[in-house]
Amino acid sequence: MASHKDYLDYILDALSLLDEITYRSMMGEYILYYRGKIFGGIYDDRFLVKETPSSKTMMHSIKKECPYEGAKEMILIEEIDNKEFLKELIENMYEELPFPKKESKRLYD
Hints:
This protein is an alpha+beta fold. The chain has one domain (5-94): YgaC/TfoX-N like chaperone (Yope Regulator, Chain: A, 2-Layer Sandwich), CATH 3.30.1460. It is 26% helix and 26% strand. The protein has 3 helices and 6 strands. A 6-stranded antiparallel sheet has the order 1-2-3-4-6-5. β5 and β6 (74-76) form a beta hairpin. The longest helix has 12 residues, at 83-94. It is globular.
């Protein structure tokens, strides 16, 4: 089941205290970026973030879910209406996240 654009808009509004939030649509789901780093995504209308030391520490109770079959589990965010909490969570996660790997260009003859 793909995620709905309305749910993406709802999550982007919840993240509105953060500058530089972007997203990328991928196979009916949405990958979320903060300042160029992937911190989570929307999968089957669920807001999931990567597991980092900060995300584990800041969450009162952690519920992990798989974004899709075969993927690494991520943390389900249920406190969506708490914009201040989301801002602090994503900002704290930022330093612990890697920048995405650059895709290498293939040269063909």
